[in-house]
């Protein structure tokens, strides 16, 4: 494994995080369960907005797999806050499937709050394949740059980073997603 930094410590990739065999197993497992249309989170709750997001999603609460992934990624995770420390991955794993013509318009990822003391701050995303065209992850601030999906690579980024899942032109793109959870030493301190 090795790290490639795109924007200081706020957007970076860990290459060769998963093997091709592991990636294939995750894809097979997700396809075996099945995908559904993915909603968008708004102030009014979850809504279907195909003009913003039209990919497919599978959600799976799996603390065991989250812990296995955490043990591998933990040495690469940063602790940028003085009063908050990384403690693991969100056990709610999301598998995304993008077919030709599907994308996710520019957005910022939301924070998951497990409690007053435990909140997510970084997105953890693993590209499970790369045998498709298009489908890059493009970031917009402070400058525009693109992360090209490579099977087995993990992309980590701070939730407030504006980004998009670019349209897949051909083939099918698969992604595994979770969040890095942080524990605060003070419930009033939000980081």
Automatic annotation (TrEMBL):
Keywords: Dioxygenase, Iron, Metal-binding, Oxidoreductase, Vitamin C. Pfam families: 2OG-FeII_Oxy_3 (PF13640). The keyword Glycoprotein does not apply. Residues 89-182 form the Fe2OG dioxygenase domain. SUPFAM superfamilies: Clavaminate synthase-like (SSF51197). Its cofactor is L-ascorbate. One of its GO terms (molecular function) is procollagen-proline 4-dioxygenase activity. This is Proline hydroxylase.
